[in-house]
Amino acid sequence: MSKSFLVDTTLCTACRGCQVACKQWHDLPAEETTNRGTYQNPADLSFDTYKLVRMTEGVVDDRLRWLFFPDQCRHCLEPPCQDTAGEPSAIFTNASTGAVIYTANTRGLNAGEIRQSCPYDIPRQAKDGTLAKCDMCSDRVENGLEPACVKVCPTGAMNFGEREDILKLAQKHLAAAQQKFPKATLLDPDDVRVVFLVGFDPGLYHEYAVASATEYGISRHAALRKMLRPFAGMVSHLG
Amino acid sequence: MTNHWIDIKNSDCILIMGSNAAENHPISFKFVTEAQGRGTKLISVDPRFTRTSSKADIYAPIRSGTDIAFLGGMIKYILDNNLYHKEYVQYYTNAPFLVSNSFKFKDGLFSGYDEKTRQYDKSQWAFQMDAKGVPEMDRSLKNSRCVFQLLKKHYARYTPQKVSEITGTPQKELLEIYKTYTATGKPGTAGTIMYAMGWTQHTTGVQNIRAMAMIQLLLGNMGVAGGGVNALRGESNVQGSTDHCLLWHIWPGYLQIPRASDDSLAAYNERCTPKSNDPLSANWWQNYPKYSVSMLKSFFGDNANADNGFGYDWLPRVDNGKDYSWLSLFDEMYKGTFKGFFAWGQNPACSGANAGKNRQAFAKLDWMVNVNIFDNETGSFWKGPGVNPASVKTEVFFLPAAVSVEKEGSITNSGRWSQWRYQGPKPMGNSWPDGQIIMELGNRIKAEYAKGGTFPEPIVNLKWDYLTKGEYDPHKVAKEINGYFVKDVTIKDKTYKKGTLVPSFAFLQADGSTSSGNWLYCNSYTEKGNMAARRSTKDAPNRIGLYPEFAWCWPVNRRIIYNRASVDLKGKPWDLKDWVIKFDGDAKDGKYVSSRWQGDVPDGGWYPMQNPDGSMRDDSRYAFIMRKHGHGQIFGPGRADGPFPEHYEPLECPIEKNPMNAQRINPTAPIYETGADEWASCDPRYPYVATTYRVVEHWQTGVMTRWQPWLLEMQPQVFVEMSEQLAQLKGIKNGERVKVSSPRGALECTAVVTKRLQPFKIAGSDVHQVGIPWHFGWVKPVNGREESANLLTPAAGDPNTRIPETKAFMVNVAKI
């Protein structure tokens, strides 16, 4: 049985409760930041920031929009990072939840290659080369709790549950969103466990919002990776 | 809130104006989102496009300080297009009341204005009375002196063109919003307003709210589910603190503060108790003496009796006509009028308007006690920027207080729900709960006065028994607030023994046989237990989210106040689906013969106004039971600045002439005149409109949140938001540091250049507006460069409340 998220950005108010809850649960330190002329802070994901609400403003179809995108690892069904690593003691998929987990052993991997393999540009490295990212709050989930970011969300933008239920919920949310946003769409729902729902062209939210924005979709991305590193892929599956 | 948080979900149209709920009341968006999910329209009106606006169906910009023009235009739109709820307006509001012929309005002034005192003689706005002393009414609303006709005349000037010229809101958006919101005038539909300090903190603050209350009355939106006038309070327990008289002008439960001329309890009660000669008016405040005497009994216990006026003479009275509000207190402190100051859970060095004046005022004190959970700019003012510690005589004491989760007690939310909380962790180190500090302080003062002193009676006679085993006992206080019978009392054949908790305020007495610290909370802690601690998630039969057995709500657990106005004259709900109450009594031969209501606790259990056969009943009561004449007040003759809201410019404004009338500013607004109170209107040195606000990441002056690294990470620095056009004009780049200044002070901010602010076209000219959050102060972050936006704001206030005008003032912005 695997879990999934639905992140309905049309309901997100960018209160950033999720961003703080993530740091709190994982006991991650705050980064030294400055105001760079935007509310978005930190500037990007980092070894100490697994969840980041990206904020973009702009005129879309003659109307000013402020778009919020609570970015995080998508926990891919076939994670290219895992395949690329080929080292289950460093990157593996939790069989019960589907969470893609990074361990301290990621220090031994080629961090640049791992990050590049990710269609969503998620993993970040520490100075010593260790990689980190969202772990689906595996410890919470395995104890029957929701991930911290979902628990804290006031509007229903962040949802979590059994994959089958979440996919149904996603269709329901999509139908509702399309009433207001005709271009509303789900991002890569068949390939990832963190399904984003956006109201506009995904490229407006974030460069890496969707892998399938181009023809170079995630499945193809994963397949390519496998072709490039057939050995690694095999090891991974054996693991 | 007349309604409550959950009830927002029942609304058909939500107007968020004067607040930024998504950022400052983030959890409210649970219910806003739920409503939107079933088609409710969300309207956001704000000088700047906010996170709230990002979720709105309609957004419109408005220049700060022009809300009355905006809302006045909506009143005109309602009247011009006959969109008001006719039966509601005819029977539940004072629209039919005839106003005295002496009431006039000319050149921006109502009749009775005295230029010297800058005050009105309000007697000129009185209602016409019949021989019995009952207001003359014309329920057909046709009489030229009736409120309805005067209202039409008053707002005839508020045309969309004129409103747009003042507010800067484009006419297209203006009319779209008017049309969308006023559709809730249709019976059975409801619109709600979510407002906060964006409406209150103006020299016209009270009239901003009045204007919206009038709209809600015209549309029949008061008392119904998904309606009401809903103030989103700025702190989690600010409602509770107001209920228990945090402010100077009231006693607990909104009883009035005695004036010097109220030289006896009888004289005080006489002045404060309204009298109505209309048998159909419940005039609930006629019970006033029961509440004031019960409060005095609670203060002084057995020492209060009929012979000594229940200790009335032991309580301070205010000088007639004198103001003791925040602004006046700091004005007097600045002048050196008093010597000592308790800064308890507050940070006036950053929170008060014209904060620089406050900081200077602290140095005039002999002593200050700072009670807080962290060091702040108030307690450390003596070592602040530009201050030489050697030159400050003030002795500062710091008392560390426990955090809210470290203590047991109740908090009352904006929706009037008193909710009991339990202690989590024990207080850290030497910090104490506030209650413990107050008890200890009281005991020490009592011990001193026991030895003698000037006028010791108030202190030595004070009942002060809220400790259990030496510790502050919140249950004892909660019971005291609810109140006891202090002797055996028989009411309607039932005897209540001495010491029994009073079941509700209907049982309170004026003869000293009951004690109640706050009549409004009588019913909150009874012999059935601590009502605020209830946690049932069972809804009421109307299934509108009242959850009547979850916590407790004043008054008498009524979740939606004025709910008698949610039904027609026969007691049938206007809205059959989301009904609040409905009459369920038996009828015989076209007449009701028994009285029974379903749903929420009704505003009085009287029969409906009308029988099923249409005959009027003489044992009913008008819907608005707290009003002397029983009707919602479209005409408000009690306000300092007029019975109808009128547009005046803020004290500091960008235009020479008020386009609406001959008065530029509110003619009754109080103005302070020390050397620290400079202000500038239409001054080329300060050409830009400014406002202050909050962000979701910080809280108030940031005393709690600036010490919290995860929050500081998201909002590390004070910033000024401005349009791309203004930035270009001033050569300012996004993200660079700039200086913002007003006649009162200056601070450095990071420029956030954004499309979310746009220049306004005001009376033919381009007007730029900027905005600054007020969460910062020099103590933390430790670099000392992030300062309070209140160094800029003026100490000018509303004439009714003296709330400061921090939401509209003038500044300059310059590159550093």
Can you offer a commentary on this structure?
The complex is a heterodimer of chains A (239) and B (816). By secondary structure, chain A is α+β, with helices and mostly antiparallel strands. Chain A contains 8 helices and 10 strands. A 4-stranded mixed beta sheet of chain A has the order 8-1-10-9. In chain A, a hairpin with a 6-residue loop joins strand 4 and strand 5. In chain A, helix 7 packs across helix 8 (230-238). Chain A is globular. Chain B has 816 residues and is of the alpha/beta class. In chain B, 21% of the residues lie in helices and 16% in strands. Chain B has 20 helices and 37 strands. A 6-stranded mixed beta sheet of chain B has the order 31-33-32-37-30-36. In chain B, strand 15 and strand 16 (417-421) form a beta hairpin. In chain B, helix 3 (67-80) packs parallel to helix 9 and helix 13 crosses helix 15 (355-362). Chain B is globular, with a radius of gyration of 27 Å. The model of chain B has no long low-confidence stretch (mean pLDDT 97). The interface between A and B is large, with 35 and 39 residues.
- Counting helices, strands and paired strands, the structural category of chain A is alpha+beta
Instruction: Name the chain pair with the biggest interface and residue counts per chain.
Output: A-B, 35 and 39 residues
Q: Terminal Cα separation of chain B, in Å? A: 44 Å
Radius of gyration of chain B, whole Å: 27 Å
Number of strands of chain A: 10
Strand order of the largest sheet of chain A: 8-1-10-9
Strand content of chain A: 15-25%
Radius of gyration of chain A: 17 Å
Given the C-alpha coordinates, what overall shape of chain B results? globular
Report the helical percentage of chain B: 10-25%
- SSE-based structural type of chain B: alpha/beta
Beta content of chain B: 15-25%
